[in-house]
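EI: anyone free to look at a 253-residue chain?
SC: sure, send it
EI:
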Amino acid sequence: MPATGAKPAGVTNEAEAAQAVKQMFDSIAPRYDLLNHVLSANVDRVWWWRAARVFRETLAEPDAAILDICCGTGDMTRALLKRRPKNARPITAADFSQEMLKRGAEKFGQKADKDAPYAIPLEADALNLPIEADSLDLITTAFGFRNLANYEAGLREFHRVLKAGGRLGILEFSEPGGLMGKAYALYFRRVLPAIGRLVCGKDYPYTYLPASVGSFPPPAELLELMRKVGYTDCRWQPYTFGIAGLYTATRPD
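SC: here you go
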């Protein structure tokens, strides 16, 4: 049966799943950046840069309305901001984890240079965005979509708030095949939880991570779901042997 959404251990419905994910990210927020960079050997920085580059034309438009949803501590937001011109409309950076958002705001908030591009933090649920329909030119999300309690509902909500012709980018983990896949699986399921436990002092978040990637729809399945919701030009670009990849799509005119 295709995966419909994140299923943390012990939950019985979507409301419980969302609450469990929120509490988990609140709890690991203080060490989240350190662990991300250590566990990925800083390759995650390349992924954010590559994803932002795909949307460079939209980002270069000063008046473009942009949302980085599930922004976490703001690294994808910062990658987007590097491609925004001076005096550009602020990006909206949203997450439902208050602790993650608080740390992100320190990175992407307005600086002393008032002309420099910046983002406005917004505490919000990706499945129920406090944003007008048909109002956004671009939505991005990096390594957060996988944690939604309902993937189809998330895609429909993004579709609702995008303008006709607006673009969607989902940067997410996947499971590569072949020898790389076997080595990756060993690292992801054995080594990663041990390092997470050592640095973070918590076991569950870093056993949840490989479990959530394992149950996440494979690229072909997620692309089909995107088409079902009503997106066009649905594509997946693998990064680093398929360990991660960028899904792109457009809301049609």
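EI: The CA atoms of residues 109 and 156 lie 29 Å apart.
SC: 👍
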